[in-house]
Specification:
Blueprint (H helix, E strand, L loop, with lengths): L1 H14 L8 H37 L5 H4 L11 E2 L10 E15 L17 E3 L2 E3 L4 E5 L4 E9 L4 E9 L20 E11 L2 E9 L24 E13 L2 E10 L24 E12 L2 E18 L2 E18 L6 E12 L13 E5 L4 E2 L4 H4 L4 E6 L1 E12 L4 E12 L11 E14 L4 E14 L7 E13 L1
Antiparallel strand pairs: 1-2, 2-5, 2-6, 2-23, 3-4, 6-7, 7-8, 8-9, 9-10, 10-11, 11-12, 12-13, 13-14, 14-15, 15-19, 16-17, 16-18, 19-20, 20-21, 21-22, 22-23
Helix pairs in contact: 1-2
Length: about 475
């Protein structure tokens, strides 16, 4: 069409000078026709310019990567990479993260652990053929290093997410007889779960932090206050969460069905056959929290608790043991004039039968009375001496911790804290080598030379009380230096 118009205009311009003999009315018609053609030509030039501009824009745009083009909905942020999509799935966004950490550790007494400490052994005591005394240890290790993958998939009005996180804190086969070999470092599944989120509802299933006691002290010693005042760990669970906007903050309700671990280690069975499994139903965890901001900094208060059950075979049949807890945790900013920002945080708790992965009672949850007259909290043969269970009694405990966190600058942060785990002494009556109480005192720092590279240092003093008839109390001074590469 455009070519025809241009051709007519060209012929009209050629014929116009030869048309002098036409009538005056013919001149007027020809003039009108030429003007119309000129207007159309201008419009065509304008359209051509617009088309050229659109073509240049399209040429400058990078075509999407094949995986990115298949994502259901775009994300608001960039991700490390996209999965290929297996088992009939379409690609998902993946974020790769973690840190490398090397620790140099020296401590001046014997403890359960030297790369990390669970409790201190008594001094100058003979128990079960083993002599404990004050003895220093030194180690260099990398086991605190970890890496993980966050996965996501956005749909129209809901989101699918997951996590796969690993570290090196696993045990070798035959741990009681073979040491963990750092040159043959096996991996451990740390957190593995899948979740869905829609609006203010969330469902999560898999291995994750317990629903209870989600506030942890900042310790370089890996267990983060385990058996020293901070309870809770990680457990397989199915957790449902719902939150509401209340004032300037968020009120959150969480409930979970859990697979607990008590394992007083009944001789001759594998660890998966835990006494908690034999109860025939899952444990339950619940938490109510409120998060907000005070002076522009985050603040938190939460109330939580759990209930589960264990089952043991006794001489007279079967006996159950209850496990429960009730706790309060909080974190508040402090207006310290000499610091960039600071927080006071901690928790208080009370409960029963909190050994194993509940990490309370200094790992003493149940007392077993045996038919050979002995009382024990561990069912391995070297403690039972061939005896069989007559009665099972739960051990009560209370504890908590408090910590001061100070950010001196964007690069330097320090932590100062104290914690205590205090089982009921009367519930441990008759148990040889019973741990009556354990406390921790600590101070540490982390300095980031860059956002990726940091060094840290930590001092811990740990005191574990024993009955005088079982020997002296256990005391330990622990010094630790760490090197980090965050990614």
């Amino acid at each position: 069409m455009r070519r025809e118009l241009l051709f007519v205009l060209f012929i009209g311009l050629l014929v116009a000078p030869l048309a002098g003999g036409w009538a005056s009315s013919g001149d007027e018609d020809l003039r009108a026709m030429v003007q119309q053609l000129l207007r159309e030509v201008q419009e065509l030039k304008k359209e051509n310019a617009q088309l050229k501009s659109e073509i240049e824009k399209l040429k400058s745009q990078r075509p999407p990567a094949p995986a990115e083009a298949l994502v259901t909905a775009p994300s608001s942020k960039k991700h490390s990479f996209f999965s290929k999509g297996g088992y009939g799935a379409r690609p998902s966004g993946i974020d790769f993260y973690g840190f490398l950490k090397a620790d140099v550790v020296w401590q001046d007494a014997n403890a359960v652990g030297d790369e990390y400490v669970l409790w201190v052994l008594p001094e100058h005591n003979t128990k079960g053929g083993h002599k404990f005394g004050s003895d220093s240890t030194f180690t260099i290790n990398f086991r605190h290093s970890r890496f993980g993958f966050d996965l996501w998939k956005d749909y129209k009005d809901w989101k699918l997410f997951g996590k796969f996180e690993m570290d090196f804190y696993t045990q070798s086969h035959g741990e009681d007889t073979l040491p963990w070999n750092p040159n043959h470092s096996p991996l451990r599944a740390r957190r593995v779960f899948v979740g869905v989120r829609k609006g203010t509802w969330q469902l999560l299933a898999g291995l994750d932090w317990m629903t209870i006691s989600q506030l942890y002290p900042h310790l370089s010693n890996f267990p983060s206050g385990t058996f020293m005042g901070n309870i809770a760990y990680r457990m397989p669970q199915v957790r449902l969460s719902k939150w509401f906007k209340v004032g300037e903050g968020t009120l959150k309700f969480e409930g979970a069905l859990e697979k607990p671990y008590g394992f007083p280690r009944m001789e001759g069975i594998i660890w998966d056959e835990d006494p908690s499994n034999r109860a025939g139903y899952p444990g339950f965890e619940g938490r109510i929290s409120y998060t907000t901001k005070i002076w522009g900094q985050p603040a938190l208060v939460a109330l939580w608790g759990h209930y589960s059950e264990e089952e043991y075979d006794t001489v007279d049949g079967v006996e159950d043991a209850d496990s429960y807890s009730l706790g309060l945790e909080a974190k508040f900013p402090l207006p310290l004039p000499f610091a960039r920002k600071a927080f006071l945080l901690g928790e208080l708790w009370s409960g029963r039968n909190l050994d194993g992965y509940y990490t309370g009672g200094v790992n003493q949850g149940t007392r077993f009375r045996l038919d050979n007259g002995r009382y024990v909290t561990d069912l391995r043969s070297k403690y039972t001496d061939g005896g069989h269970i007559l009665d099972v009694d739960e051990i009560d405990a209370v504890g908590g911790y408090v910590e001061l966190e100070v950010f001196w600058s964007p690069k330097l942060v320090t932590h100062f804290g104290w914690g205590i785990d205090n089982p009921d002494d009367s519930d441990l009556e008759g148990v040889r080598g019973a741990r009556l109480q354990q406390q921790m005192y600590y101070a540490n720092f982390l300095y980031r030379f860059t956002k990726e590279f940091a060094v840290g240092g930590e001092y811990m003093y740990i005191d574990c009380d024993y009955r005088k008839s079982d020997g002296d109390d256990g005391e330990l001074n622990r010094f630790m230096g760490s090197f980090y590469y965050f990614f």
